[in-house]
Known about the structure:
The protein contains 1 helix and no strands. The protein is mainly alpha-helical.
Amino acid sequence: MLLYRTYTVNFIIQKKFVAQKQKNISKISDKFPL
Length: 34
């Protein structure tokens, strides 16, 4: 059960991290339109 909780926390952190990265990417592409 503890392992499952750790996995869930890691998953949430990863999702937040990916969302943050996508925000940064869209900011960059706003500054430098392809």
